[in-house]
Design brief:
single chain, 212 residues, alpha/beta, Rossmann fold, globular
Length: 212
């Protein structure tokens, strides 16, 4: 079910200082966008922005870019951002399979938070940890590829581990119950809802080392 369209959404997109409306124009130049040489982290599927806002507030010396494909969702995030002063945040509306068209070895870490699990086997290629996406991500990273994932879906989590291993990743951390781990964590909107219901959150921190 698609979220309801937000009134004046195009106006909100056009007028927000946080929106990168033509991201392809900045390929290879995102340090210039932020005006500094700080590391850049990318959240793919930023939802309503709780995570990226929390991270940006907690880590002012790290830059964050949020990506979302649904206009109604990203507009709600922008409305939240527009009430704040966070110079280390930018957002863009783009499909994940186009990310290597707008970034060129500029990203330090990718965050995948509660991505759509696409549970049917025939839809596996749409999962954001499918091999096809992992290959795209390779072109984004400035150093060793680094992915942090959170999900309530254990089947997606198992699938992600398999795909990451096949793609050469090793794990700094894997947990089936994030709430009981000593991990520096900023919660998403979905995460809070799941945890209030007593559901466990799966977490992994994976790095693909020794790139040739």
């Amino acid at each position: 079910m698609r979220p309801r369209r937000v009134k004046n959404s195009q106006e909100i997109l056009d007028n927000s200082k946080y929106v990168i409306s033509n991201p392809i124009d900045y390929k290879g130049k995102y340090k210039e966008v932020f005006g500094n040489n700080n590391l850049i982290r990318l959240e793919i599927g930023m939802g309503k922005g709780d995570f990226i806002v929390g991270m940006a507030q907690k880590y002012p010396n790290i830059n964050f870019i949020g990506v979302e494909v649904q206009e109604a969702v990203i507009v709600r995030a922008i409305k939240k951002l527009d009430k704040l002063d966070l110079p280390n945040v930018k957002v863009m509306m783009i499909n994940a399979d186009k990310l290597n068209e707008v970034f060129d070895h500029e990203i330090d870490t990718i965050h995948l938070n509660f991505s759509d699990p696409w549970p049917k086997t025939r839809h596996a290629k749409r999962r954001l940890t499918n091999e096809s996406f992992l290959k795209i991500y390779d072109d984004l990273f400035i150093g060793d590829p680094h992915i942090i994932q959170k999900t309530d879906n254990i089947l997606l989590f198992a699938y992600s581990i398999e795909e990451l291993v096949k793609h050469g990743y090793k794990f700094n951390k894997v947990s089936l119950d994030l709430a009981n781990e000593d991990i520096d964590n900023v919660q998403t909107e979905y995460e809070r809802k799941f945890m209030l219901k007593g559901e466990r959150i799966n977490y992994l921190d994976a790095v693909k080392c020794s790139r040739k």
